[in-house]
Amino acid sequence: MSSSESVDESTPSCNIKFMSPDDKVVSEVNPFLVQVTKHNNVVNPLQKPSNLVATIIFNVPAAEKRFLQDCTDDSTEHRPEDNTRVDNTHNHELLKDEDGDLILLRNAEERNDKELNILIEYENSTSLDLVGLQIWRGAFLLSDFVIHNASKFQGKNVLEVGSGTGLVGIVASLFAKNVVLTDLNEPSIMNLLKANIAHNKDLIGQGKTPSILPLDFMAETWSQELTHVVSSSDVVVVADVIYHVEITNAFIRTLRKILTAGEKRSKDIYVALEKRYVFTLADMDSCAPMHNHFLEQLDTQLGLSPGCLPRPLDLENTIEVTMTCVPLDFKQYFNYDRCKELVLYHIRSQFVSKM
Ligand SMILES: C[S@@+](CC[C@H](N)C(=O)[O-])C[C@H]1O[C@@H](n2cnc3c(N)ncnc32)[C@H](O)[C@@H]1O
Q1: pTM (predicted TM-score)
Q2: Whose Cα sits closest to atom 13 in ligand 1?
Q3: What domains can be seen in the chain, in order of their start residue?
Q4: What spacing in Å lies between the alpha carbon of 66 and ligand 1's midpoint?
């Protein structure tokens, strides 16, 4: 987050402060989105005339393509400005562009990749309470992970929390059996999720439209419908919800509820985040206070730390949880800066039978 960040010297664990009520927060992925909007189809934003719609083009690799469900159009649309485009013609002559330069052909495996366009409507800058209307880098990282690990999502019930624009959940819906996108019950966020699902209905395919439900980390109780969705989820994806002390604490309480929900159902939770470094007088150094706070609270509330041994989560010792840090060596499919501040954690719960 940029433009409104400042160091709070008295409480170093809270690193975002507004200078004035009108201050805006800006997701730094937007400069990268400008590059993808040049391929934009003409789409009228459904939310507000001022909203942007990015056409984000990505390739599902041949190995993962078999996990795609209901993506009917197998053709690769020609984009003249892309000189590295795939040659599907089996023409072995050397291909040249208009200037006589050789067109690079990708290797055989990449030739079978499936090119897909996802349309995401978003805002360029928002107030802190509406950051979900922007796309954040964690969402791109997690979407890369989903595409690269499509088999982990195939046939699964997937839940996304803090969905924002819904990018990760919409990508997951290409492979999963069922996807539910959740966020605060704030009309502009709920409507943006609806709009983004509508923009991608052809890509997602008939009968696989993700559902949308409100899920507020602060809520003490859940609706019956939400309880059912959480209980029956196999995989939970979460991008970039670690940026505020109270939201982080409430998110970890929600994590516990998610991990313990559902009759003997193991869950895989993937949490992508961006460490945001600030210089604090308390530490006389630059540190990532929210990431540190997240790790401290995970340890305090759930007894979890990256690489820890399986830990019991309930009094009956029937649920064991583990936490690992996922290496970020998987392929990048989206156009963003995969900076060193990005982190991806995998938290897994398993039911152990006590005979
Ligand atoms: C930085 S945005 C990330 C959005 C999206 N996941 C992404 O990465 O592009 C943080 C998200 O957390 C959501 N959020 C904030 N407070 C929340 C709460 N109490 N309960 C649930 N979601 C919350 C916001 O509405 C927003 O969608």
Answers
A1: 0.84
A2: 162
A3: 25-75+113-351 (3.40.50.150)
A4: 32
